[in-house]
Amino acid sequence: MFDSLSDRLSEAFKNFKGQGRLDEKNIQDGMREVRLALLEADVNFKVVKEFVEKVKERALGQEVQKNLSVGQQVIKIVNEELTLLLGGEQEGLVLKGKPAKIMMVGLQGAGKTTSAAKIALYLRRKKYKPYLVPADVYRPAAIEQLTVLAKQLDMPVYPSTTEMNPVDICRDAIVKAEEAGCDVMLLDTAGRLHIDELLMEELAGIKAACSPDEILFVADAMTGQDAVNVAATFDEKLDVTGVVLTKMDGDARGGAALSIKSVTGKCVKFVGMGEKLSDLELFYPDRAASRILG
Ligand code: GDP
């Protein structure tokens, strides 16, 4: 995760080696490289522009810190700004409903079903009793997939069929989850290859019927800026509460992680780091920034 960006930035910071102090010229030169590194990492163009301006401004206004070299001063500013770009503070799940409801949304193949099961496992480790709800009735394999994962995890799952209506499934599942003594429900909704109006209406219907505590937009990190654009559309329609970025294990660039907060205002809450159900991590912006800067 972030490997190529990390390499490119450490190259960029070599510009400051041996420089006595920060001035307009060396900041300009160094930041040109940082800008290129971020663009190569597939970070949103506007986000890069604002980021570079901010770092330049702070670097120029910087009091000389005698204990830090010029390079270290710039790295410190970049680290702080990268942390903000990645979301600032770590944001966990906010679960208040009884039972609490987490609705997973996103395009087909993004990793919704896998992430629903991963989050269920994460929550069980936090002493919750999760209930899984397959609400993608268009792909029989999707119901089967979540049912198999539920069996693997030894968790109760709603007996959805492809003849049922997704809104009815979710509504009825609330009753069944309560009967089963569960306190958190994971609603796995349908995806499409592309955004379409009907899907959005269905998701809005589920949202209205269930009032989810969390609506998590699940995005495949490897799709970079596409993931960010799709996130913005889902957020416009559904007002999502957070993002799960999957397949971070295969994403060396990091463009989606670095742009999604600025573009949508929503934080990455979890990252998927592999196909196994235990491959889920809370996302800590400050740790990710430090990792990028080596
Ligand atoms: P859905 O259509 O959105 O429900 O997507 P799925 O949950 O079926 O996931 C699509 C594929 O991505 C599956 O093969 C998953 O195993 C894989 N996948 C999901 N999350 C991750 C992840 O974090 N890392 C990797 N490497 N693969 C993942």
UniProtKB/TrEMBL annotation:
Single GO MF descriptor: GTPase activity
Top-level lineage group: Bacteria
Domain Signal recognition particle SRP54 helical bundle: 1-86
Catalytically driven reaction(s): GTP + H2O = GDP + phosphate + H(+)
Subcellular location: Cytoplasm
Gene Ontology CC terms: signal recognition particle
Keyword presence, Magnesium: no
Functional note: Involved in targeting and insertion of nascent membrane proteins into the cytoplasmic membrane. Binds to the hydrophobic signal sequence of the ribosome-nascent chain (RNC) as it emerges from the ribosomes. The SRP-RNC complex is then targeted to the cytoplasmic membrane where it interacts with the SRP receptor FtsY.
Protein name: Signal recognition particle protein
Residues of the whole record sequence present: 1 to 294 of 500
